[in-house]
């Protein structure tokens, strides 16, 4: 039943703004048979190297999109997240009464579905597979040979493949320390089936597997680039990108009003408490689980985007500790279902009914709803198609990464944007210039125009979303050298007045922009 809940929670209309450039890249790979090595989509970085470790995800999603549309992507998203939760559930063999791990994994299911279809859903699945294998290597040491193969798949889906090495390192340290401790200090004794030689060979092969990507050593080292952005440069990026924000700052802004933050805090407390409970009741602790807990707590603390990763690990750690406690205190296997199990099953049944009926999302205060396809009026498809007409400027300035992504999907790579959401391509300097241009638009400062004219003196077509670009829209509406040539509830399209007159485009009514789409629509 919990698997059904996880799947239903994953079935929400897609609102992720990066989806469209991912789909475009997947289609480009399928059509050309090539992997991108340089930037395809921006005119500010025409020869910038592009380490696109998402290419496997992009091919999968582009294929699904061609076969089943956006609704197919929603279904795949739900299935992959459900698979990750199921593998994580079985990572620690459940000896507990069903309601207890069920309650823990219910928290994890909510957190896993905090963000819609993105490449990281496969990272969650591969991470769960690593956790599952780590718990079985004592009994099946030969299964270590699956780990390098898993890494080869992972690195060609998402840049977080390095987390597999983190999990493996935690397990290797735990094995070595337990061998040395020989049952002392509250550590369980190592059973000796996993030899140090096997651990060493496996570690070397898993490390070498990181080179099995189209970018070789640059791809293998790419996680360091990402880590720098949400650690060393976190202060800058967190100002503009919510997923880079520190959770405690998010808490200072919103308090306990956000469901996902509340769930994450609760799950962290449960996982931390499970260590205390095991130590207090049995004088036992697990170095492996403690290292996992510390490492993934650090990631979750550094950026809110890592909350779902911690949820998967935190639930596994908590269940592992409680399973060990139960095994030491209750030698006999549990018999049948208890009244608590029946009550929990009933609550799951109500939850299953509440999700598709809409009660769950309304109660949770989310800007989501159960459904398929894409969120209504959320993406500016009409504006992007309009701005990509044959005689329009071949370059665009889009004031939101989501708008740039949709424009790229409909018009790229032939037509290019100033900047999009690919932070692995677009530098901090470009991001700062992007923000400066938006401020200048709002302040009626025309100095930004000179920086954007091409060799023929043409300015790009400007696309401004109606939700977050109101100051820039108001600024251009008052500029006589700019003309509003398209407006709908989601986006405005501006052309330089001389360009609009050449194309014989009249100024349109701005009133549709006064009714921007809301999150829950």
TrEMBL record:
TM region(s), chain numbering: 67-89, 153-173, 259-280
Q: Which domain of life is it from?
A: Bacteria
Keyword annotations for this protein, in alphabetical order, are:
Membrane, Transmembrane, Transmembrane helix
Protein name (database record): Uncharacterized protein
Task: Name the source organism.
Answer: Schlesneria paludicola
């Amino acid at each position: 039943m919990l698997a059904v809940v996880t799947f239903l929670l994953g079935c929400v209309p897609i609102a992720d703004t990066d989806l469209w450039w991912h789909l475009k890249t997947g289609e480009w790979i399928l059509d050309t048979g090539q992997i991108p090595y340089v930037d395809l989509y921006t005119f500010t970085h025409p020869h910038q190297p592009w380490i696109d470790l998402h290419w496997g995800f992009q091919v999968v999603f582009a294929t699904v999109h061609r076969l089943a549309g956006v609704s197919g992507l929603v279904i795949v998203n739900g299935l992959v997240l459900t698979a990750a939760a199921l593998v994580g559930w079985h990572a620690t063999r459940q000896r507990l009464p069903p309601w207890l791990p069920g309650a823990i994994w219910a928290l994890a299911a909510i957190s896993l579905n905090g963000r819609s279809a993105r490449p990281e859903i496969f990272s969650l699945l591969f991470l769960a597979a690593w956790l599952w294998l780590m718990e079985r290597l004592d009994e099946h040491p030969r299964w270590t040979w699956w780990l390098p193969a898993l890494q080869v798949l992972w690195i060609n889906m998402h840049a977080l493949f390095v987390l597999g090495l983190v999990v493996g390192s935690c397990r290797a340290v735990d094995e070595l320390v337990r061998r040395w401790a020989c049952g002392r200090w509250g550590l369980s004794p190592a059973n000796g089936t996993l030899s140090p030689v096997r651990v060493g060979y496996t570690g070397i092969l898993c490390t070498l597997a990181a080179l099995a990507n189209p970018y070789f050593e640059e791809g293998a080292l790419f996680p360091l680039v990402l880590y720098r952005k949400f650690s060393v440069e976190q202060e800058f990026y967190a100002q503009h990108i919510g997923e880079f924000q520190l959770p405690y700052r998010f808490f200072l802004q919103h308090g306990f009003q956000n469901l996902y933050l509340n769930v994450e805090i609760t799950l962290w407390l449960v996982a931390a408490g499970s260590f205390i409970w095991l130590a207090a009741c049995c004088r036992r602790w697990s170095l492996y689980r403690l290292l996992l807990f510390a490492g993934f707590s650090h990631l979750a603390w550094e950026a809110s985007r890592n909350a779902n990763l911690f949820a998967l690990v935190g639930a596994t750690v908590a269940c592992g500790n409680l399973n060990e406690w139960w095994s030491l205190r209750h030698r006999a296997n549990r018999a049948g279902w208890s009244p608590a199990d029946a009550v929990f099953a009933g609550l799951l049944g109500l939850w299953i009914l509440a999700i598709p009926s809409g009660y769950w999302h309304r109660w949770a205060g989310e800007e989501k709803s159960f459904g398929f396809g894409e969120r209504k009026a959320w993406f500016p498809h009409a504006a992007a198609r309009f701005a990509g007409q044959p005689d329009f400027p071949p370059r665009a300035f889009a004031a939101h990464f989501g708008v740039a992504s949709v424009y790229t999907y409909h018009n790229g790579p032939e037509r290019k944007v100033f900047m999009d959401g690919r932070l692995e391509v677009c530098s901090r300097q470009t991001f700062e210039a992007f923000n400066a241009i938006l401020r200048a638009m709002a302040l009626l400062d025309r100095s930004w125009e000179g920086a954007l004219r091409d060799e023929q003196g043409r300015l790009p077509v400007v696309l401004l979303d109606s939700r977050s670009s109101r100051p820039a829209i108001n600024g251009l509406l008052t500029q006589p050298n700019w003309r509003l040539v398209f407006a709908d509830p989601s986006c405005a399209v501006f052309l330089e007045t001389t360009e609009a007159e050449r194309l014989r485009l009249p100024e349109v009514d701005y009133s549709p922009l006064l009714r921007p789409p809301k999150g829950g629509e």
